[in-house]
């Protein structure tokens, strides 16, 4: 089943067509990266999914149960808006407990769940501090924490890692990876290298439409293509592998995995030939970067 289905959704702000017949389907249980240039309509998509931006036409279904309805989706769908601001005067713990209570949790569950999500974003030691006393990155992590209160089935995060230092980005990546299969996570971001590592599904939007969607493995070809970078005469090295129909690109030999053959199996056949012929290997990679894949 799909966690999220949008069919032919239109949304205009005056003359600007933010969503222009958006068709989108995100499978249940994936960590999905939502990418696209500035103004592609990603934030508007989150708005119509979260129910705070009204679509002009089209249909939206969350968890197979229609458009966002608090009676059905409260506690099951969570959203972190792009410019989420928590009350700066409230302590972190109080703020999260308050939001947990709003979801309908009793006091004891709200306290326990606040502890759990603070642990998820590694901020237990800041629980008593006021939001305004935190750095930008820490505030962002508290906002991410609130999205995971109550263990929702569908979580949408609009640029959750914007402005975070590399260490914090890595911590959030670990959190996102840990959610694989537990919930459906949709992460919008411009940092493609980051999404490549965190996500197993990717959707690309342009001008209010979905222009590409699929498994990360398929889009980046990381289970179907091997790239061997060699030092010296790359053509001569490629000729040694003629039986595998190689292609040369710069210093690299590009090999396609035959149907049903995994990259590691292909490597086991190819690399001994190269090594036996004293080809100097610099790097062996699978597929291409998400950036390269999307730029094509
Ligand atoms: P970014 O990557 O820059 O965050 P985005 O993909 O999230 O962009 P949106 O914020 O959804 O894109 O914007 C889509 C289009 O809708 C843009 O042309 C934007 O100018 C327009 N738009 C968004 N919100 C409003 C608004 N409240 N009023 C008028 N136009 C808007």
Short synopsis of the structure:
By secondary structure, the chain is α/β, with parallel strands linked by helices.
Q: How are the elements arranged and paired?
A:
Elements: E1 2-13, E2 16-27, E3 31-35, H1 42-50, E4 57-62, H2 70-73, E5 77-80, H3 92-102, H4 107-120, H5 136-147, E6 154-158, H6 166-178, E7 184-188, H7 192-198, E8 201-206, E9 209-215, H8 216-220, E10 225-231, H9 234-240, E11 247-249, E12 252-256, H10 263-276, E13 280-286, H11 290-295
Helix pairs in contact: 3-4
The structure holds adenosine-5'-triphosphate.
Adenosine-5'-triphosphate binds next to strand 2 and helix 1.
Descriptive report:
This protein is an alpha/beta fold and 296 residues long. The chain has two domains: 2-219, Rossmann fold (3-Layer(aba) Sandwich); 221-295, Alpha-Beta Plaits (2-Layer Sandwich), CATH 3.30.70. The protein has helices at residues 42-50, 70-73, 92-102, 107-120, 136-147, 166-178, 192-198, 216-220, 234-240, 263-276, 290-295, and strands at 2-13, 16-27, 31-35, 57-62, 77-80, 154-158, 184-188, 201-206, 209-215, 225-231, 247-249, 252-256, 280-286. The strands form three sheets. A six-stranded mixed sheet has the order 5-6-7-3-8-9, with helices on both faces. The chain is globular, with a radius of gyration of 23 Å. The model has no long low-confidence stretch (mean pLDDT 94). Residues 13, 16, 18, 36, 38-44 line the site of adenosine-5'-triphosphate. Adenosine-5'-triphosphate binds at residues 13, 16, 18, 36, 38-44.
């Amino acid at each position: 089943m799909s966690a999220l289905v949008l069919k032919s959704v239109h949304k205009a702000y005056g003359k600007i067509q933010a969503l222009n017949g958006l068709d989108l389907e995100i499978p249940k249980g994936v960590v999905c990266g939502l990418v696209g240039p500035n103004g592609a309509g990603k934030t508007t998509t989150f708005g119509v999914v979260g129910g705070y931006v009204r679509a002009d036409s089209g249909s939206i279904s969350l968890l197979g149960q229609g458009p966002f309805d608090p009676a059905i989706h409260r506690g099951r769908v969570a959203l972190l808006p792009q410019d989420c601001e928590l009350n700066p005067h409230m302590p972190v713990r109080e703020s999260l407990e308050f939001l947990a209570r709003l979801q309908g949790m009793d006091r004891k569950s709200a306290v326990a769940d606040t502890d759990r999500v603070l642990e998820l974003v590694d901020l237990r030691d800041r629980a008593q501090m006021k939001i305004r006393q935190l750095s930008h990155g820490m505030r962002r992590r508290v906002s991410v924490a609130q999205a995971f209160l109550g263990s929702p089935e569908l979580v949408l995060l609009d640029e959750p890692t914007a402005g975070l230092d590399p260490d914090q980005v890595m911590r959030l990546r670990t959190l996102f990876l840990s959610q694989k299969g537990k919930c459906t996570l949709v992460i919008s971001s411009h940092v493609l290298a980051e999404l490549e590592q965190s996500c197993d599904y990717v959707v690309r939007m342009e001008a209010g439409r979905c222009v590409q969607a699929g498994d990360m493995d398929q889009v980046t070809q990381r289970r179907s293509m091997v790239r061997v970078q060699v030092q010296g005469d790359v053509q001569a090295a490629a000729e040694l592998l003629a039986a595998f129909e190689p292609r040369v690109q710069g210093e690299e030999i590009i090999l396609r995995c035959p149907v049903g053959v995994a990259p590691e199996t292909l490597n086991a056949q190819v690399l001994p030939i190269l090594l036996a012929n004293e080809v100097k290997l610099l790097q062996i990679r699978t597929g291409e970067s998400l950036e390269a894949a999307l730029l094509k």
